[in-house]
Design brief:
5 strands
């Protein structure tokens, strides 16, 4: 069995060399997929699952919307960081292992910030659909 595999090795190497135009893009594609997985977005969290995480695990909710949007209404436990990555990281450093949920108006900015945090190996949840989805699920906001 082992000898049979060794006998096939030259044919395999020849195949790779003859089909370099297929093999090289395949290798780059696999590397790109691997890298994308490493820096992929955070886990999207439905609003009701966010409530459970907040109530059961004392999740830290970071609101990255503008100050005006935050003042109009926020999730009761949310802390304002604004769209500043450094401010967000300062708050995360105080989390003491608690889950972290990022919140923006529609989920887009949170996903972007989560991607930036993931590059620094900081794992966070993103409130899917943001505050807009929270409101559509008839969940409360405070002023």
């Amino acid at each position: 069995f082992y000898v049979y595999h060794i006998a096939l090795m030259p044919y395999f190497i020849e195949f790779l060399i003859d089909n370099w135009f297929i093999v090289i893009p395949l290798i780059f594609s696999l590397l790109a997929l691997y890298m994308l997985d490493k820096i992929s977005k955070a886990i999207n969290l439905e609003p009701h699952k966010g409530v459970v995480l907040i109530n059961k695990k004392n999740a830290l909710v970071l609101d990255i919307r503008s100050q005006n949007e935050f003042d109009e209404g926020k999730i009761s436990q949310a802390r304002y960081t604004g769209p500043d990555l450094d401010s967000c990281k300062r708050e995360i450093s105080k989390a003491d292992g608690r889950p972290i949920i990022l919140v923006c108006q529609n989920g887009t900015n949170s996903a972007r910030m989560a991607s930036d945090l993931k590059k620094e190996e900081i794992n966070v949840f993103v409130l899917k659909g943001g505050i807009n989805n929270w409101i559509s699920e008839k969940l409360p906001l405070v002023s």
